[in-house]
Every structure is written in C-alpha cells, then in structure tokens.
Amino acid sequence: MPTDPNNLPIPGSLLLVDEHATGAHHGDIILSPTPSRDFNDPLNWSKWRKQLAFAMLMTYTVLSGFAACSVYSVLVPLGEAKNISLGALNAGTGYMFLLLGWGGLITQPLALTFGKRPMFIFSTVGHLGTVIWQVYISNEGTWHANKVLQGLFTAPIEMLIEVSIADLFFAHERGFYMGLYATALYGGNFLAPVWAGFANDTLGWEWVFWLSALMLGVLIVVLFFFMEETNYNRGTTELGEKHGGTTTDDVEAPHEDDKDKDHTVTVEDSRPALEGKEYSYMYKIALYRQRYTTWSTLWAQVYRPIIFFRYPVVLWSGLLYGCSLVWYNVLNATASMILTENYGFSASMVGLFYLGPTIGACLSSAHSGWAADKWLLYYTRKRGGVREPEDRLWLLALNAILLPVGLILWGVGAANNVHWFGLVFGGLLVAFTSASGGAFALNYVMDSYKDLGGEVVLTTILIRNSLSFAIGYGITPWLNMGLKNTFITAAMVGMALYASFIIMTTWGKRFRKNSRTSYWRYVESSVMPHH
C-alpha cells in the first residue's frame, strides 16, 4: 500500500465507463471488480449459473422471512393459549429484530471465514428448531429465549445476502439485484400475514408454525442440493484496480479530440481466456471447502464493524435504512388496530390488506434497481466515466415526496374514516419507499467500501435493527398523540430524512476521502492471497 495518504485512491470512486478500455470490459463499461482468469471465480460463472445462485438467495430470503414474520397474525390466539400478554409477545419480537442485527457479529465473520453456503444451511436448521419450539413454549421467559435464538439463526437474511450479490455481480449490475433482494425481503414479510391469517382461521394457530417449519425443511433440502459457495479469494482489491494507485482525482475524462473521433465499440465482453475447469458437483455441495480469511481477520471482523460507526457514509446509510424500516414497523404496529377497530376487518381481511404493501415492495425494485442502474450509467458517462457512489442517491427525491403522502393517507386518512382503498394505497406508498430506501442505503455503502462489504453492511444493519428495536418501545407513546398528529409528525420526519441525501451528494466524497487511510489499511490486512 502506498505510504503517502495523498496517493491513496478514494474508496468507491472508480473509472466505470471508458470507450477506450483495454482491460476486462463489457462494451464501454469497465468490469469492477476485475474478474480473475479462474473458471470458478463467481464473477466468471455463466449467466444461468449466476441466476441459479441468485434464485437460491431469494428463496432463502422469502421462506426465512415467511417463517419469521408469520407470527404477527397469531399473536392474539397464541397469547390466549399460553397465557402470555400481548406486550410480552411483542417484546419478544423486538428481541428477535435486535438479534437479527447484532447476531451478525457472530454469523457474518464465520460465513466470510468458513463459507456462506454452510452458514445459510446451518442457520436454516437452527431456524427450523426455533419455529417448532414456538408451538411448545410455556411462559414468557421461554418465548423471549426462543425469539432471541430465532433472531440469531435468521441473521444471515439481513446481511449475508447483500455480500453474496456482490460476489456474483459487477458494480454496474448490483443495483438491479439489490433492488430484487429488497423486494423479496419486504414483499415476503408483507405476504407472511396474508397466508398466516387464513391458516389460523382454517387450521388453528399451531398450524402457522407447523407450515412454517415445513417451508424451512424444504428450504434446507433445496439449499443443500442447489446452492453454491460464492466466497472466493482473488488476492486483489480495488486498490490494485485504480490505475496503479493513482487517485480518482487524477482520472481524466476523455479528451475533446478523442470525443470527436468515430469509435466502434464492441458489445461483447473483452476478458482473458479462462483457466481451469468447473468444480465437480460433489465438491460444489461440500459443506466445507477451505478457510477464506486468516484467523486474525476472523477476530477483526467481530469488532471492526463497531469501528465503522465513525465513518459518516456508513452511519448515514444505517440511519437511512433504519428509518426506512421504522415506517414498515409503524405500519405493522397500527394495521390490525386501525383496520379492525375503524373498519371492522376480520383477521383474514387484515391479512389481505398486505397485498397493497406487497405490490409497493415489488414496484420498488424498478426504482432502486433498474432505474438507479440506468441513472448511474447516464451520470457516469456525463461526468466522463468516473462513478461516484452518491450518483444513485438523487433518486431518493421521489421517496421524499411519496413517503409523506403515504403516511398521511394511512394515518390521517384513518382518523377521518376515508374509504379503505385510500389506506391500501397509502400502505403501498409506504412499502414502496421503505423497500427502495433500504436498497439505496445498501447499494451506497457497498459501492463506497466494496472490499470490506461484509463488515460495513453489518454495521449498517446494526444501526438499522437497533432503531427498529427502539421504535418497538416508542410507538405506543407516539400513538397516544392520536393518529392525525402521529402521522403528520412521521410524514415530516420521513421527508426530512430522505431529503438528507443532499448532504451526501454534497459532502459524501469528502467523507470517503477522509476515511481512505484507515480503510485501505483495513483492506490490506484482510487480504488472503488466492492460490
């Protein structure tokens, strides 16, 4: 690593578009990270192999989310059967959300060291055990213990998926797939109460857990036979890709005389011939292959996410993601109360209400994924080829407009007894902005600090889930203000939060520049050469 801090690249700033590219590229887009020449490098996998790997990630996300969130529809009958108060049941759910984040301090380093595939499988086995246990809980203490363990075993759904996506796809592709992940995460969580409500009405509350256990059992089998390991040591980092250690301030846009020339740009990939042969199927499904990091890096990954709280980019991303989740939690906390008391909905009809938010979550992937990627490439070309992670954030302007509309339609509309369709549309807008806001946060922090993606994503999730845990205690006194005042306040806070992207588009690059010395030191200490 260069000893002069002024010669260090700014993390996240890279030359992404260059018509004269001579290295690995696709058309005029420079491939980042630079793939190795190894046939088994996930970046070199065939399209169908990548799509299968991504499908496994989404299957894990949806089914694990279903099993974790289906309980919302049966809290009342569960509490009556086990003589546990609703407050105690909700507190247990809060502990689960807290461990979904902080449990990553255990699961994430283990996955990055020994493999993501075994972590996904073993975590599902543990999750299956906690779901079966929920049928037999006997008191408040066992419920809380159960939810703590469920949060720990389900932690990979919150942070390991994002890192796996970065293993498979290049920088200019990640936004699309991250958007689909956010849709699967939020959409699955919104759909869980729909089927669980009908299962409770027709079969009884116990069958919500039995069916969830069945889903997880099927998931274990599917993952074992079809999920591949995506951990891979290239022995290089983005530091080695940035023009021999020059800063992005030194990267020039194409000269004017070059722009005037006619260029014929190939649309095919230009990469060196690949070496080696595809792993055997038995090797692919092995639960252990190798150790991917050093022992010192394993321990560093446990405490270093706490250190990243001092990086403004990571802190802001965590706040953005956390506050985006808050609106989802507010919707969940008030849906049953509003729709049952104000509109006379049955439990199954309350479940059907979540179809609106599910549609909103699905639409969000086009906003935070496809549209954001297109905007990123447009803005990058306009700048002369240099991509800055802040480029995507301009699309948060739409969130700053739609979230207040959705919250006011939901809360103020309910206070004034508007037609139920107004509430469904409000829920759709809240889900749209919540899911896309989370995707923007994850893309931004991953684009900024790609080489330590697993750790900075973990820090982001720690902030997010801590806020989610806190809102579980704050929502009741907040609602005591009345629906109208509560949601007008929420609308203003939400609009201010999403509008804060202006701060990052103005000073984000400076924040990243100030962090480059410590960041590249952490990166270099984490590299385990590929053999």
Summarize the structure in words:
It is found in: Membrane. Keywords: Membrane, Transmembrane, Transmembrane helix. Residues 53-508 form the Major facilitator superfamily (MFS) profile domain. Residues 252-267 have a biased composition (Basic and acidic residues). Helix content is 69%, strand content 2%. The chain is mainly α and 531 residues long. A three-stranded antiparallel β-sheet has the order 3-2-4, with no helix packed on it. It has a two-stranded antiparallel sheet with strand order 1-5. Helix 3 (86-102) runs antiparallel to helix 18 (453-479) and helix 13 packs antiparallel against helix 17 (420-448). The two termini are 21 Å apart.
Q: Give the termini separation.
A: 21 Å
In total, how many beta strands? Answer: 5
Strand content: under 5%
Low-confidence stretches: 243-268
- What's the CATH topology name? Growth Hormone, Chain: A
Residues in helices, as a percent range:
55-70%
What Rg do the Cα atoms give?
A: 23 Å
Which architecture name does CATH use?
A: Up-down Bundle
Widest beta sheet: strand line-up = 3-2-4
Sheet with most strands: 3 strands, antiparallel
What class do helices, strands and sheet pairing give?
mainly alpha
Number of helices: 21
Q: What is the highest CATH level, the class?
A: Mainly Alpha
What would the principal axes of the Cα set say about the shape?
A: globular
Order of helices and strands: EEEHHHHHHHHHHEHHHHHEHHHHHH
CATH superfamily: MFS general substrate transporter like domains
How many structural domains in the coordinates?
1
Q: Which whole number gives the mean pLDDT?
A: 85
